């Protein structure tokens, strides 16, 4: 799975953007992640243009 960083997270809408290691931004849903902190490193899979199975790197 790719590694990235949560760049933006909107708690009101429950959505955010992940920046992957190549600098590409990918949207994700807050329902798919264990964290809401911007700057948190995460691992994720990609389906189309959307990050899925987002898991915080402890």
Query: How much of the polypeptide forms β-strand, as a percent range?
Result: over 45%
Uncertain runs with pLDDT below 50, 5 residues or more?
A: none
Rounded radius of gyration (Å): 10 Å
Total strands: 5
Encode the helix/strand succession as letters: EEEEE
What is the number of helical segments per DSSP (H or I, 4+ residues)?
A: 0
Distance linking N and C termini: 15 Å
Shape: globular
Strand order of the biggest β-sheet? 3-2-1-4-5
**Average residue-wise pLDDT:** 88
**Helix/strand/pairing category:** mainly beta
Largest sheet, if any?
5 strands, antiparallel
User: Helix proportion of residues, in percent?
Assistant: under 10%
Organism: Streptomyces filipinensis
Protein name: Cold shock protein
What is the secondary structure topology, with strand pairs?
Elements: E1 3-10, E2 15-20, E3 25-29, E4 41-47, E5 50-56
Antiparallel strand pairs: 1-2, 1-4, 2-3, 4-5
Name its key features.
single chain; 58 residues; mainly beta; five-stranded antiparallel sheet; 5 strands; globular
Overview of the molecule:
With 58 residues, the chain is an all-beta fold. A five-stranded antiparallel sheet has the order 3-2-1-4-5, with no helix packed on it. It has strands at residues 3-10, 15-20, 25-29, 41-47, 50-56. The radius of gyration is 10 Å and the shape is globular. β1 and β2 form a beta hairpin. It has no helices and five strands.
Describe the structure in brief.
The protein is mainly β and 58 residues long.
């Amino acid at each position: 799975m790719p590694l990235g960083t949560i760049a933006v997270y909107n708690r009101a809408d429950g959505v955010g953007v992940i920046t992957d290691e190549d600098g590409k931004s990918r949207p994700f849903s807050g329902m798919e992640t264990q964290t809401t902190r911007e700057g948190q490193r995460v691992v994720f899979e990609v389906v189309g243009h959307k990050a899925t199975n987002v898991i915080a790197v402890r």
